[in-house]
Amino acid sequence: xxxxxxxxxxTIHKFIKTSVGDVFKTxxxxxxxxxxxxxxxxxxxxxxxxxxxxxxxxHVVGTVGFIGDANGLIYLYLDLPFARRCTCHLLGMxxxxxxxxxxxAINDAIAEVTNMSVGGFKNAxxxxxxxxxxxxxxxxxxxxxxxxxxxxxxxxxxxxxxGGHRVVADILMKFGD
Amino acid sequence: MRYKILTVDDSKTVRIIVKKAFKGYDCExxxxxxxxxxxxxxxxxxxxxxxxxxxxxxxxxxxxxxKLKSDATLKGIPVMMLTAEGGRDHVLKIAKIxxxxxxxxxxxEDVLIEKVGRVIDLKPLSEAPSKTKSIFDPAELxxxxxxxxxxxxxxxxxxxxxxKVHGVATQGEAIDxxxxxxxxxxxxxxxxxxETAFTLFRLLRTNVKTKYTPIFALVVKTETTQQQQAxxxxxxxxxxxxxxxxxxxxxxxxxxxxxxxxxxxxxxxxTLIMRLPENCGPTVLAEAANYLKPKFADxxxxxxxxxVIDIHLLKSLHMGVIKLxxxxxxxxxxxxxxxxxxxxxxxxxxxxxxxxxxxxNFFDSVDEARASLGKxxxxxxxxST
Lengths: 177, 385
Hints:
In chain A, 36% of the residues lie in helices and 29% in strands. Chain A is α+β, with helices and mostly antiparallel strands. In chain A, strands 1, 2, 3, 4, 5, 6 and 7 form a 7-stranded antiparallel beta sheet that branches. The longest helix of chain A is centred in the middle third of the chain and has 25 residues, at 103-127. In chain A, 42% of the residues are buried. Chain B has 3 domains: 3-119, Response regulator (Rossmann fold), CATH 3.40.50; 139-255, Response regulator (Rossmann fold); 261-383, STAS domain (Transcription Regulator spoIIAA). In chain B, β6 (139-144), α6 (148-157) and β7 (163-168) form a beta-alpha-beta unit. In chain B, α2 (35-45) runs parallel beside α3 (61-69), α7 (171-180) runs parallel beside α8 and α11 (282-301) packs parallel to α12.
């Protein structure tokens, strides 16, 4: 498949829905239901989860990239209470134990959730004819920030409902030279 | 032997998940955050299996695997990839270097345990290693039988025990049950269609959670070929139909290695009570005899000096019972314990028919017997023996 050919929205939609759904179901025991794809998300305020608004509640954003025949980055936005809940579930910790473990535990857990989600997406790309590799995850935390893509990247945004919590996958992909 | 599992992953979260997954098993989890650390730990500790991530800083999993396989002392260690890198081509490339298995994240802890259990002989940790389970402790029993009447019979027959009987009719239901809540014992009917019982037996034995669970075969008494086949395959015990529930209960207790002494011995009101049940077959007598010396010694150690031997439930006397009672009385003499007997009219009458037992004196109740021990001189009690 030509490297510089853009992958369709429908394909990306299918890949991200499956990968996020699998990770949240298998590792966290939560159904991640895709409620808004890129087109429907256009009327949503951006950045997601009101992260950039004054006085917004803190958010944890995991990032993992993929490089190869397809290049891109996926940001996974979680509000802090849900990030804490996911961490407790993954590590088998109580809230008190998590308080003791500190932010590092949350960062590491959300980085891993993002790594697995992006891993699933990337594996689907590989099997689709776009071999690529994962990068090492990183975490962005804050209560007022905005991530903007460069002009040559295409952006796809998907909103998931996870038991009442909103999780947003923001996919930035670059095709061609 | 305690197995060592090395998890090599830059994510502390994954290392914690791995640790958590194997918490209930007798194994040691070693950790490394990248390939360099992984090789160092592998050289020093020689783990029994390595769970290896691919994408890591410093040295990734592919490089570590390549170095491991080119090291004569380390190449024999089985490696299982545990990674988010799961594209077909990627998996094939890594598989060529030499891995035992490949597990793509996200993964269920059960699946990880099952896969590791295929490589090393994982043994579940006993929940309370210092305390032996007794017949009064609850247990979950699974009966796999397509005839509801049999499940009903077992449930009814064991309802006086603290054991909970769960009945399922098919292999699929049995596997689902065992995955959800591994039972303490499984009974499988050999009359299930085709070779279901034997297939299920093999599946349970290959699952790390049920590898050591006792599995009984339920088989019709006259089906000797099936019985031989079950013994050859390795079923823990045979239970023949029609089912003798008393015998089944004894077999279950034995298979689960339960302390059954409380069936026969108890301390009540500062007195050791030795109590024989209604039917004293060879298994019951052997069990009671087995605990006799230690239980009497325990009573003495705890400061008790009175024993009531209660056989009022017994239907009839026979040589096995007489021998056991002589043994108990001899023990009392050896330890300087006072004792008294409790019987029923039938037993008292039967005792008059034997030379050796003719002089035995019985009380009608444990209370009477216990009350007598304070007053009657020991020599007088023993005169008839």
